[in-house]
Amino acid sequence: MIAFDLQVGLSILVLVALADLRVGQSVYWQSIFQKSPDPTFVLLTFVWHAMYAWDEALQHLYNHICWLMRGLIFPKETKVLTTNDMQLTQELHVIRAHHLHYSSLLEDFEKTVIFIRDTPNPAMDSVLKEDRDYSSHLMKRECENLLSEIDRLDKGRKMQDKRLKNVMNLVFSSVNINDSKQMQRMTEAAVKDSAGRLLLFNISLRPMLIFLFLAMKQIAYLTMIFLPASFVAAVFGMNVKEISPDTEGTLPHYVAAALSLTVATIWVVVAFQSKFIFPPETSLLMRFTWPVQLCLNLLRSRDQADDRNENIEIPLTTATIIGRHT
Description:
Layout: H1 6-20, H2 27-35, H3 40-73, H4 75-78, H5 86-118, H6 129-194, H7 198-201, H8 207-236, H9 251-272, H10 284-287, H11 290-325
């Protein structure tokens, strides 16, 4: 749906035409027809009809743009389409296309009025000079009135175009806000994943959000591994003897620098996201000892597993002995 559909537009044109056909019967125009023998004034009456139709059409389009703006600001009140619907985006672009078309039509309309003003009617050559001058004066006055009205319509169209741009910016801002909220939820999911609590958080996540989070997590891990090597390659500029014999650097130098920087990056990242290793109140200095603590946790868990296995084997052995004695 645009500012007005075809039936509404046709009804507007019919009503305006029926009302404005009385222009030629008004006192003002009757006096012009009586004082001037120029038949071009009859053409001007139809030009005024088109002017009134233009005014009505732009007014309805302006009301529709205001309705869209109100619907975006108060969607529950007007029950307008949400910003996520493709239909609303298409409607905004259709209205913008109509505005561009109206701009070219108004330019043609202005050229038509200028042609009527500057081109005298050949039938007036046989009329007295006084009547011809008087008709020319009236013609210029009426054409200037039409040109001023056309300029008013064009300014109104430009104002509507600015309002339409405001609506489109509001739609894009709303979409960006929704995307930011989704990114915030994925970031919270990443933090909970580092703490080992993502399973509880997944209950409130949509499947698409979970898929995006997993993709972002995979990209983050790949970046953490390959970014240090890329940085070292950029620093070296690949100026190693194996590639450029005139340089002092060697490929082992590059590998040593890349591996050390990669290990340091992983060390720092895990230290800041090591909530599953240390309690929440652990200091930052203690978090940097996560490799030692991780090894201790692994050894402790293995010892506990061995103890559980021994406790399970003793009752079975006792039961076997009792069974043998009985």
